[in-house]
Every structure is written in structure tokens, then in C-alpha cells.
Amino acid sequence: MPLPDILNIGFKIDEPKLWAVKLSVEEILVAELEHNLDIPNFPIEIYFHKDRWIILDGVHRFTKVIKLGHKTIKVRKVSDKIAQQTKR
Questions:
Q1: Where on the tree of life does the source sit, at the highest rank (predicted)?
Q2: Which listed residue, 46, 52, 80, 88, has the most CB atoms within 10 A of its CB?
Q3: What is the DSSP letter of 29?
């Protein structure tokens, strides 16, 4: 499933490399980032582990639907086989 346009920046980030870079920390208005939550219709990926569902991808979308008061969310249930095939 392709990324929604709002998330497509044209490349993928290697998070551990990014986290290792020394960058200054500053504060900005939350309003400058709220548009990142405008994707609640894109399904989240969940995985059943130890008797409960774990969000593998989409925690921000989950947060958005909670904020909007939705009672349901679109999900893609990841099987054990797929989880093993897609782990780093």
C-alpha cells in the first residue's frame, strides 16, 4: 500500500542514524505540525502479541481518531509470518 502524499517526502529515513546526529532542540507551535495528523483514513498496522493488539505502524493516526472521538479505526492485521518477513 503506497504512503499517503502527506507522508511521502521522497526518501526513507534511517531512524538510528538520524537519532545519532547531534541537533539542537527547540520549541515550535503545535499548530505547525497538526497537519501530520490529517490521515485517519489510512489504515494502521496491528499485530496480536501476548493476548493483545500492538500498533506496529500508525500510532499518530490512532491518536488522531481518539482526538476526533471516533469509535472505530481502519486496520491491517499483520500475521506472525508477515511480522517475521518484515522485521529489521
A1: Bacteria
A2: 46
A3: -
Round to whole Å and give the CA distance between 40 and 17.
Answer: 28
Task: Give the DSSP letter of residue 77.
Answer: E
If 0-12 CB within 10 Å is exposed, 13-18 middle and 19+ buried, where does residue 43 land? middle
pLDDT in tens, 4-54: 666 666 767 777 887 888 988 888 887 777 776 666 567 889 999 999 999
CA distance 57 to 30: 22
Quote the strand ranges of 1-87, DSSP E. 44-49, 52-57, 75-78
Q: Which pTM does this prediction carry?
A: 0.59
CATH number of 5-86: 3.90.1530
